[in-house]
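Lab notes, practical 5.
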Amino acid sequence: MATTTSTLQPPSFLQPTGYKLVVNRVRFPNLEFFAQSVNHPSINLAPAIQPFRGVDAAFPGDKIDYTELNMLVMLDENMQIYEEMKTWLEDTVYKNVQRPTSIATASKDQTEYDISLLVLTSGNVLARTITYKSAFPTFIGDIEFASTPGTLQYVSFPMTFKFTSFSFSYDRIWLME
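Output from the prediction step:
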């Protein structure tokens, strides 16, 4: 009886702390450093239902629905990250309205940006990049200020983004920036 040898290598499992988030480093320099957790969204393909002789037959649908991109962001002492995100959310609403505080920057700013999640290996080497295309904030959560005794826990707040699609890529350029 012939013996076979497997060419499969044991997998290196993805570590939950091996990531880096990048939006637009000029406009949002703090988001990259204070994103505490990021939940990659789920994908849903709703089936098309076709009634046939008293039975509903299900077929693959024709529309992919992405849930929202959720993240938990640590708050810095000067609340700069919160202010950056609040301004982005407000600019999304007032994009076509010239507010006195934004007249100077309105021409070079946009309300949607690609968000890149850089997934790192256990050696902090770029493994993959997930790019969420045309993302914009839809929710900035509560900030709880509480003085409870015990261990020190830093203040954080949730954020939610909508986007049109996402893609995977392998790009070493991010490591050079």
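Observations recorded by the TA: The first strand starts at residue 19 and ends at 22. The radius of gyration is 22 Å.
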